[in-house]
């Protein structure tokens, strides 16, 4: 676990949990529908309010293992969540 502390505001700005032993589908069931996503060449970011996960896999689905979870309230640029779509561009 990594914690980033904001000295000026005296608060925890971000917390990162590595290798949480979760699948993205489990988190969708627990946290509800994501607010957005960002597809990269080798993985996907999935966003909810105040948190996001990274899935290091080209093929992306509910059974994909989560590489890390980040709790962070900073705004992020992302595409709207459109479900699990695996298509080559």
Rg, nearest Å: 14 Å
Number of strands: 7
Principal-axes shape call: globular
Return the average pLDDT rounded to an integer: 87
Strand-residue proportion: 35-45%
SS-derived structural category: mainly beta
Number of DSSP helices?
A: 1
Q: What topology, given as strand order, has the largest sheet? A: 1-2-6-5-4-3-7
Distance between the termini: 35 Å
Could you give a short description of this structure?
The protein contains 1 helix and 7 strands.
Provide the fold topology.
Layout: E1 2-6, E2 11-18, H1 24-31, E3 36-39, E4 44-48, E5 51-55, E6 68-72, E7 79-80
Antiparallel strand pairs: 1-2, 2-6, 3-4, 3-7, 4-5, 5-6
Describe the structure.
The protein is mainly beta. The chain has a domain at 19-75. 9% of the residues lie in helices and 38% in strands. The chain has 1 helix and 7 strands; from the N terminus they run E-E-H-E-E-E-E-E. It has a 7-stranded antiparallel sheet with strand order 1-2-6-5-4-3-7, with no helix packed on it.
Q: Which keywords apply here?
A:
89 residues; mainly beta; 9% helix; globular
